[in-house]
Design goal:
Length: 289
């Protein structure tokens, strides 16, 4: 067995697969550059550190259940001039994650809300913060099933664990009374403990129709907006734009989406009503709604 083979066997046995995969390249480079022993050792160790970091990120991305990978660089800000790029640059610092603050992205369908939400979650993962993505409908359905099976508290922990929880498409389907109360419990449990990134096609004034009760809608908004940033997107759908480019839509269609404006957040009243559905999960406030 050659020295190289013995080295590869030893590295494999130690679980140093990053070094093992690059060993020949590292040895050849060191020979050509006549690297000092310390420099060569640093390069070898750095190869393993980077390999482990990439494996960690891959695992985190898989666990996050992101529907796709989107970056800020892929977002066409020129097509959505209503967005304040300075506001997005501030969010990219991830200060909101460290402060357990929320990000609410409002606007009509197709304007890039989910793109920005996924980009923020992916940036958090790259920075070592766990994230989890669910549509509002799937999330409430999952927690409703857990409630009926008597395991709501245990299932809620799945959504309390990540530093960033992305809730997509809030408002596309209304919630029944149980769904609204369960959603309130989740928001209360994450309040000032973890960040929520939420996308919705409804203005805050329309949230009463989502939850079927303006009082519980106010209570949810009270917690979501206490520490939050609202990104209001008023523009045309990217998907309609692409279809129009392909000649699949007349030029006028989609202008309604461009004109749709989402009302800015208003300060919700402090009136609160206590919700009662099973036990209150750990971290939920005891003052009620």
């Amino acid at each position: 067995m050659t020295t190289l083979e013995r080295l590869q066997t030893a590295l494999s046995g130690l679980g140093l697969t990053g070094i093992e995969a690059r060993l020949e390249v590292l040895l050849e480079r060191a020979s050509k550059q006549e690297s000092a022993y310390g420099d060569f050792l640093l390069e070898v160790v750095s190869a393993e550190v980077e390999a482990r970091r990439q494996r960690y990120l891959k695992t985190r991305l898989q666990l996050a259940h992101l529907p796709y990978i989107k970056t800020f660089e892929q977002f066409d800000f020129s097509f959505q001039p209503s967005i304040d790029e300075r506001q997005i640059r501030e969010l990219r610092t991830l200060r909101f994650v460290h402060e357990a603050s929320n990000v609410i992205l409002l606007g009509p369908p197709g304007v890039g809300k989910t793109h920005l939400a996924v980009a923020l979650a992916e940036a958090g993962i790259q920075a070592g913060q766990a994230a989890y993505f669910m549509t509002a409908h799937d999330l409430v359905t999952d927690l409703g099933r857990a409630y009926r099976e008597g395991r709501l508290d245990r299932r809620l922990r799945i959504y309390l664990a990540p530093k960033v929880l992305v809730i997509d498409e809030m408002g596309y389907l209304p919630l029944d009374e149980m769904g609204a109360t369960i959603f309130f419990q989740l928001v209360s449990a994450r309040y000032e403990r973890g960040s929520i990134i939420l996308t919705s096609n409804k203005s805050y004034g329309e949230w009463g129709s989502i939850f079927g009760d303006p009082i519980i809608a106010t209570a949810i908004l009270d917690r979501l907006l206490h520490h939050s940033t609202t990104v209001n997107i008023r523009g045309e759908s990217y998907r309609l734009k692409e279809r129009r480019k392909a000649g699949l839509l007349p030029a006028w269609e989609g202008e309604e989406g461009r004109a749709l404006s989402v009302a800015p957040a208003s300060t919700p009243p402090k009136t609160r009503q206590k919700a009662a559905l099973g036990s209150v999960p750990a971290g939920a406030t005891e003052s009620g709604l």
